[in-house]
Design a protein that fits this description.
Length: 273
């Protein structure tokens, strides 16, 4: 690629989210400056140049020439990229690999909005041209890639919580009403207090209350492993003997906790719909 002194027939400076972007027109063809774009986005310009030159669709769409920018006193060699492939180049950038939050957000803005801005800068207020088949496919792929990356990030956040819940409900332990309500809130963000939880289990016919209002688990629920009963004892104040209470302590198993969560989630989804 040869470098020659060329004074652009048309050169303009535009603002995009507070950043300067120059459009250069040579022989009726519009270009942007790759180095300037990379500086704006915090990207390695040389790495992006090499990546571009490996793309078949970029062949003949980039070149180096000396450009004098508005307000400059002399021209310098610049790597120009045809505005027709700027969107395709931006789509090759994987934002999930960008560690700097500010740079990642700016790259995503460029991917979503820069193509339309370039059209406005070059064509003014003229109606937007119809996208080519290649550009339509490119936009769809860009949107799909962004959604896939977002889903992957959400999975990374949710996976540890899901693993912790699975370990919890598959354990051999059991929980009091208070502890069960706390687990549902901490692990699944379900707000339910002890009294409401007990009332719910009675409504579901998991438990019943005796004549003194003390809860007991139904035998079928015990056999299903949803609840368990723990023998309670007390000391007779007269004889000093340790006696067994007629009302055992009802506790919720891991399996029961998981069923409660799923039923509450289904009920919430049904109300929302």
């Amino acid at each position: 690629m040869n470098s020659t002194d060329i004074l652009p027939a048309k050169a303009a400076t535009h603002s995009f989210y507070g950043q300067s972007i120059n459009t250069i027109t040579l022989d009726g063809v519009d270009y942007l400056l790759l180095g300037q774009l990379c500086d704006n986005l915090g990207l390695d310009a040389e790495g992006q140049r090499q990546s571009l030159e490996r793309q078949a669709w970029a062949q003949g769409m980039t070149f180096v020439t000396k450009v004098m920018l508005p307000g400059a006193e002399r021209s310098y060699p610049r790597y120009l990229i045809n505005t027709r492939i700027v969107g395709m180049w931006l789509a090759t950038i994987t934002t999930s690999r960008i560690r700097d939050e500010e740079s990642r957000v700016m790259v995503e803005r460029y991917q979503r909005e820069l193509a339309d801005k370039i059209h406005e800068w070059i064509n003014g207020a003229t109606p937007r041209r119809e996208l080519s088949e290649t550009e339509v496919v490119l936009q769809a792929l860009t949107i799909l890639k962004t959604k896939t990356e977002q889903q992957a990030q959400e999975i990374e956040v949710l996976a540890p919580k899901a693993s912790a819940w699975d370990a919890l409900v598959s354990s051999a332990g059991s929980w009091s009403y208070t502890d069960a309500a706390h687990c549902l809130f901490e692990q699944k963000h379900i707000v339910i207090g002890q009294k409401r939880l007990v009332a719910l289990l009675v409504d579901w016919v998991w438990m019943y209350r005796d004549h003194k209002g003390r809860p007991h688990a139904y035998q079928r629920i015990l056999e299903q492993g949803l609840l368990t009963e723990k023998i309670r004892t007390y000391v007779d104040t007269v004889t000093g003997e340790t006696l067994q209470s007629s009302a055992p302590q009802v506790r919720i198993t891991g399996k029961g906790l998981d069923v409660i969560y799923r039923r509450l989630s289904d009920s919430a989804a049904a109300v929302a719909s």
